[in-house]
Recover the amino acids of this structure.
């Protein structure tokens, strides 16, 4: 990111504040709700995905630990279903990682923006993904594994399955452990492939995400006391607009 100008650095910093805000406030979405904005600034997913991956490793482990402490040391992770789901997701996850490392930046950016557009329509219509049958569970987990491998934006697919099999008390921390495992695989592939992990950028982007994390705590408390449907519709509308702009720019260029 050495060739950017000042307002682009500022925009990226603000997006990472937003990323930390939604990750903590919603329990997911640090990648899916940030990548469309980041790709408008710099159309190269491999610049941002290592940074987001490191943030996910840190905040997912921290939030899972905090949940364990608040649970009085009781188990807050459904290890049984976690192991079962990983058996379905692991191979598609690896295939997705290979696709990320071999496809062009333009193709990967277009794939990411199309997926985000689909999620956005679900938010606007208040029709999130739902899984009600075993075969549908497997399809969503396979797709979630692949999308996680390509871009770390599989949360809506995965949550649709986990929310029907994991109790509400264990869902959040089980998902955080899942994200940690999936991101560890992705980070290992980045290291093996020699992808630049953008460690210098971490020095100033991690504090941005940390600010968002603390702000997200307030959003989380607010959403516990109100109907979040209107919030999701506004969010979906913004994401859909940004995704269309990004897709148009990718094909025009």
């Amino acid at each position: 990111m050495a060739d950017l100008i000042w307002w682009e650095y500022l925009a990226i910093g603000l997006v990472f504040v937003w990323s930390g805000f939604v990750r903590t406030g919603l329990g997911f979405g640090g990648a899916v709700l940030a990548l469309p904005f980041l790709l408008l600034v710099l159309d190269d997913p491999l610049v941002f995905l290592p940074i987001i991956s490191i943030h996910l490793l840190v905040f997912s482990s921290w939030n899972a630990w905090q949940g364990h402490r608040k649970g009085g040391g009781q188990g807050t992770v459904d290890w049984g279903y976690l192991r079962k789901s990983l058996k379905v997701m692991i191979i598609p996850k690896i295939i997705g990682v290979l696709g990320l490392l071999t496809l062009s930046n333009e193709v990967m950016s277009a794939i990411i923006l199309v997926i985000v557009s689909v999620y956005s329509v679900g938010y606007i219509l208040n029709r999130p993904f739902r899984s009600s049958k075993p075969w549908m569970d497997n399809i969503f987990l396979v797709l979630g594994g692949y999308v996680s491998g390509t871009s770390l934006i599989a949360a809506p697919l995965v949550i649709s399955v986990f929310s029907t099999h994991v109790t509400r008390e264990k869902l959040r921390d089980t998902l955080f452990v899942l994200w940690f495992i999936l991101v560890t695989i992705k980070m290992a592939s980045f290291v093996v492939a020699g992808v630049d992990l953008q460690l210098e950028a971490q020095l100033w982007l991690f504090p941005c995400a940390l600010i968002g994390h603390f702000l997200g705590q307030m959003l989380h408390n607010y959403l516990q006391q109100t109907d979040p449907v209107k919030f999701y519709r506004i969010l979906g509308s913004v994401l859909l607009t940004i995704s269309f702009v990004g897709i148009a720019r990718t094909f025009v260029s």
About this structure: The chain has a mean pLDDT of 81. Residues 6-252 form one domain. The chain has ten helices and no strands.
